[in-house]
Design brief:
This protein is α/β, with parallel strands linked by helices. It is built from 15 helices and ten strands.
Length: about 350
Amino acid sequence: MYHTMQRQPADLRRLLTSEWAQADEAAGIIEASDRVFLAGTGTSYHAALVGEYLIEEFARIPVEVEYASEFRYRNPPIDRNTIVLAITQSGETADTLAALRESKRKGHPTLALCNVVGSSIAREADGGVYLHAGPEIGVASTKAFTNQVTVLTMLALFLGRMRHLSSLQGSRMIRELRSIPDAVRKALACHDTVQRIARRYCHADNFLYLGRQYHYPVALEGALKLKEISYIHAEGYPAAEMKHGPIALVDEHTPSVFLMPRGPIFDKVMSNLEEVKARGGPVIAVACEGDEDVAARADEVIYVPEVPEYLQPLVAVVPLQLLAYHIALLRGCDVDKPRNLAKSVTVE
């Protein structure tokens, strides 16, 4: 798993070298639609949630995100001019494949964001973009998430250019996207800090992961990684929702991981952090390099490079992957083959 995480910058660079034309073509298909459904499971579902923020912000197209397992049974009202995007690492996930087939049966155009060339979902979708993440050694997805989010960012960029983004805005975003492999490489340099934090908290029985807007899906993904490979109960929440129930879980034995790179609602998240500290909860914060305000309030800080807000999930998720990895090692868990899990869930 660690080798897979280390491969993220190289695989992102390969994706950003290979798939601009395919992403542009896929965006053209989406642009003709009035609404987008994103369907996925597990990590792919969390990537889809980031995609919802991206596409709605930059392209102003309504997006709904569905668990693929629910989509095929819920029978939601979908207009004819709606497109369904299936997001999958393996291309063989049974629920996602069934959701794709149900969409096609009802006459909706379909696209796939898939990592495996020639897989069932890649073959059956009307079109799509390959992730170029390469094979993942472990069961828990890491680089698949970062590549999925990157493809969704590319789609949001092209859709935005087709609608209202200026040429200057589009050119700036392309430059920013092309720099993201280096930013992820720098984020991986937090390894030693994360390892030290893992030693401090590896015996905790519960974790909370908290973020807002783009970082809410990252909080969900961080919590999932910890559950998957270390067998610790963890929950991801929008930071403001903490006051509506989860704050009852806060005590000196329950670490809260706050995702708080600089952005428009930084002060709001800082207020949530202070509420946890006031109740005696340990706080681990993921912040931009050199942020002294966070360092003064959190018990532990993991620094990541400062990037534009819409790209922050790609760097913020890295320390969460490393934290789950090191805690799992310290607890004697098999990080590549966690119990009860399969790499590709091909049955319901």
